[in-house]
Amino acid sequence: MSHKLTKSFVDKLSFAAQAQSLYRDSELKGFGLRVGTDTKTYFAEAKVNGRTVRATIGKHGVFTAEQARSDAREYLRQMARGINPNDLKAEKRIQSITLEQVFTDFLAARKGLKPKTIYEYKRIFGILPERSQGKGEKKSAYLTDWLDKPIATITADMVSQRHSKIGQASPAQANLCMRLLRAVFNFASARYTDSAGKPLITENPVKRLSQTRAWYRIERRQSLIKEHQLKPWFTAVMNLKNDYTSSKREALRDYLLVVLFTGLRREEAARLTWANIDLAAKTLTVRDTKNREPHTLPLSDFLIDLFERRKKNNTDIYVFPGDGKAGYIVEPRKQMAHVIKDSGVPFMLHDLRRTFLTIADSLDIPAYAVKRLANHKMTNDVTAGYIVADVERLRKPMQKITDYILKAAGAKKAADILDIREATN
Fold first, then answer.
1. Closest CA relative to residue 313, chosen from 245, 247, 237, 238
2. Using CA atoms, how far apart are residues 411 and 403, in angstroms rounded to an integer?
3. If you write DSSP's letter for every residue of 347-384 in order, what string do you get?
4. 373 CB-near residues (< 8 Å, 6+ apart)
5. At what angle do helices 395-409 and 230-238 cross, to 10 degrees?
6. Could you give the C-alpha distances from 162 to 144, 146, 155, 321, in angstroms and in order?
7. Are 15 and 36 in contact (CB under 8 A)?
8. Residue 193 phi/psi, 5° resolution?
9. 172-176 LR contacts (CB < 8 Å, sep 24+)
10. pTM, whole model, 2 decimals?
């Protein structure tokens, strides 16, 4: 429909019943009005590089017909020169979008992130709710003062300086922070594009760290419990100080043993429920794993005895229940400190996983079996793709590792592990 667009004409137009109606100005070609169910919006339309482009000017009431016609002339001149006004608008918007806004979009787009991962990302950026920010979290919030900065104003110099500043306290945290910032910039580059698909964020300032080789070299932690340390460590675990009720003390003790005898990650072991334990099939299955692939392990005789004993005395859904909000045991640092003091063997929970896998390797267990015991992905291994997984093929290696640990610890299967309540009667 063609008609001279004036205030009186537009005022008289009724809103569309369902879809929308277009009215084109009879005097200025390319100037028009879109009437929807509750809005009337002016636009300019022309071909740019062979493609029809429609640029919104604004709503009737905010703009008069004459104001909109004036803006339409400018838009049409731009399009005649091959410039898409929508790209100019998008570029202007990106110039003002803040790092916090981009980070929020980044988190929304990343499907399936674990709550712990989201928490860590927010901690690094410094946008945790105030009530959850203890002294430690506030100190480790590295980008709080950048949150309200337009992302386009964050420069390579700023990145280099902040990386160095964080690195003075923790090189590992400095690298972690900048790897996350790099991912956010890469996301912005892919997310915010012009009409031709070209990125509006064209330079990732974190690239400077690679170009100048400024990333901190972080040595992979190599700590583990050595063979000669297994006996004092095992003895200290069995003799944990009675700071809790006997059932809680027993849970802490058995948790440490399960991590050592399975090589599970600390969270995987802590979150075990009785639904994960199949005593008839003599297996355990972790479903929420780091690599997103379910992990099933055969249970050695030692572990079968341990789980049977725990199940007899445990009515909770978790194998290792805890008093906290999560419902399961958290890292028992106080009890670990007792073990370290009594055994003289310093360790962290992940050292137990390293100990398990190092022993597996030392026993000449096939590499593919070790990878499966660790639940490491073999995506890039073509040969591994032809191997059909069978948990029963891991039963012999699992028992072999258990026997080695027990021998080194000077223990005899599970007979040495008594119910604390029975032992104290």
1. 247
2. 9
3. --HHHHHHHHHHHHHHTT--HHHHHHHHT---TT-TGG
4. 263, 297, 356, 357, 360, 365, 394, 397, 398, 401
5. 90
6. 12, 11, 11, 41
7. yes
8. -130, 165
9. 172/216, 172/218, 173/140, 173/142, 174/216, 175/215, 175/216, 175/218, 176/124
10. 0.63
Mean pLDDT, each 10-residue run in order, the chain (425 residues)? 89 88 93 93 93 93 93 93 87 84 94 86 83 50 92 94 95 95 94 76 92 88 88 92 70 93 93 94 88 86 94 87 83 86 93 94 89 74 48 91 94 51 43
C-alpha–C-alpha distance, residues 33 and 21, integer Å: 8
180 CA to centre of own chain: 10
Instruction: State CA 358 to chain mean position distance.
Output: 28
- Residue whose C-alpha is closest to residue 230's, from 255, 266, 261, 251: 261
69, 108, 244, 323 from 76: Cα distances, Å: 10, 37, 78, 68
Residue of 58, 53, 56 lying closest to 79 (CA atoms): 53
Q: pLDDT at position 289, please?
A: 79
Nearest to 351 by CA among 173, 222, 213, 206: 222
pLDDT for residue 152: 87
Q: How is residue 34 written in tokens?
A: 């879109």
At 277, which helix (H) or strand (E)? Answer: strand 277-278
Short-list 284, 285, 280, 272, CA closest to 314: 272
Query: Tell me, what DSSP letter sits at residue 275?
Result: G
Q: Token pair 């299955």 is at which residue?
A: 285
Predicted pLDDT at 111: 85
Tokens 């992302």 identify what position? 151
CA end-to-end distance (rounded Å), the chain: 96
Q: How far is CA 187 from the centre of its chain?
A: 15
Burial of 235 (0-12, 13-18, 19+ CB in 10 A): middle
